[in-house]
Amino acid sequence: MPRSVREHSKSRKRGAGGNDVELEVPVQFAASRKGVPHPGAMRRWAVAAFIGGLPGAKTIPGAERISIVIRIVGAAESRRLNVAWRGKDKPTNVLSFPSGLASSQQPAASGPAPLGDLVICAPVVAREAREQGKTPPAHWAHMVIHGTLHLLGYDHEIDRDAELMEAREMNLLATFGYPNPYA
Questions:
Q1: Residues 16-58 pLDDT 10s
Q2: CA–CA distances in Å: residue 126 to residues 14, 93, 153
Q3: Taking a C-beta distance cutoff of 8 angstroms, is the pair 58, 154 a contact?
């Protein structure tokens, strides 16, 4: 488990245990930025989920430099990806694409090891926040944390796994002052 994590772009030290890890979290915009949190907030949420998710992670990268790409998209791109990867013909809030990087694999010397990509659909997240009576930042934080936990191997297909993942999400969201998203 990492002893500390530095968020690329802001180079902040984050405490954990084990080796030092540099986590790069580039944020790409393929949709309007209107109503979308600042990339720095998304990076903080991803870093917190990475650190907080390691104790129960099924995928633990062994690299010293790791990246999680967050891509913000519109409904059309989300729908295309959801059809291609999940067989569901509608846009969805967040899709996680783990790289499959095992703890024993070492990345190329030229860059960070990709943990995976998150694709977050801005209009779906905005609509869900309105419909569910959540603040937009709380729902965005939930989507980034939820997706990052998926990249670490968490899942919610069976009840026991769902309970573990949801508890981790609730605890992480609480550290940012956000309420339980499942209440």
A1: 445 577 899 999 999 999 999 999 999 999 999 999 988 877 7
A2: 30, 9, 26
A3: yes
Angle formed by the axes of helices 39-53 and 136-151, nearest 10°: 40
Instruction: At 165, list the tokens.
Output: 């993942």
pTM score: 0.86
Report how far residue 97's alpha carbon sits from residue 108's, in angstroms, rounded to the nearest whole number: 20
Q: Please name the residues in contact with 41: beta carbons below 8 A apart, sequence gap of 6 or more.
A: 137, 140, 141
User: What is the reported pLDDT for 9?
Assistant: 43
> CA-to-CA distance for 107 and 88, rounded, in angstroms?
33
Element of type H or E holding 144: helix 136-151
Q: How far is residue 112's CA from residue 128's CA, in Å, rounded to a whole number?
A: 33
Query: pLDDT of 93-121, one tens digit each?
Result: 999 999 876 544 555 567 788 999 999 99
> What is the C-alpha to C-alpha distance for residues 158 and 57, in angstroms, rounded to an integer?
16
Q: Measuring CA to CA, which residue among 72, 78, 84, 98 is closest to residue 154?
A: 98
3-state secondary structure of 23: strand
Structure tokens at 159: 């009840």
The pLDDT value recorded for residue 21 is 79
- Rounded to 5 degrees, what are φ and ψ at 138? -65, -40
The length of the chain, given as a count of residues = 183
Rounded Cα distance, 124 and 74, in Å: 8
